[in-house]
Give the backbone structure.
Amino acid sequence: MTIRFVAETGSTNADMLALAEQGAPDGSWLRAGRQTGGKGRMGRSWESPVGNLHCSTLIRLRAGDPLPHTLALVAANAVHALVAPLCKGQAQIKWPNDVLLDGAKIAGILLERAGDAIVVGIGINVADHPRNLDRPVTSLLAQGATDAQAGALLERLAQLFAHWLSIWRAQGLDPVRTHWLLNAHPTGAPMRVAQPDGETVDGLFDTLDRQGMLILRLANGQSRAIHAGDIFLT
């Protein structure tokens, strides 16, 4: 495991994808003090001021690995394990891989792929968080973690990620999924899903299927598998 640091870059994900093309090994990490072009899921921009954690890691897919998109659950478990002990609020995972504190987003994760390389970008609000968004957002500092530092957090995060990655590879998705469910929105939680095609679906959270898809229970009693979308807890 190697961790590189740059003071400023456009996007650690873009940089890591370029490093992957140059042969960077599995387990590489890159942290930036500041990003000027950070992005989140669904094409959103991700504010990346100095003091927050902006990082990406590289996974080289191997024969026998579980489905690549389920690395989102690996990352969510690692980030939740990092954040939960530091804060006075209740940490919870929101499908597929946001981490919330008392309902306010504190971390986001973005997966991108190029060939056999999966880049997992992770952003954690450490010292600051955006204002005036369409959803509540918070930071570790706002949650009482006054001594949290991005560099030290990444060292711990890399250990936690390696732990869950090794379980994912050795035991498959089931133990990762089970742990994710223990720390996510409870069964029966009402939610609205805005899908990429513009359709909106309302229902109750039921579970994750064996491929990591969200299963929503609709008002008519039917179940619907959600492959991608923006989740709003209602």
In short: The mean pLDDT is 92. The longest strand covers residues 104-114. The chain is about 25% helix and 35% strand. The first helix runs from residue 12 to 21.
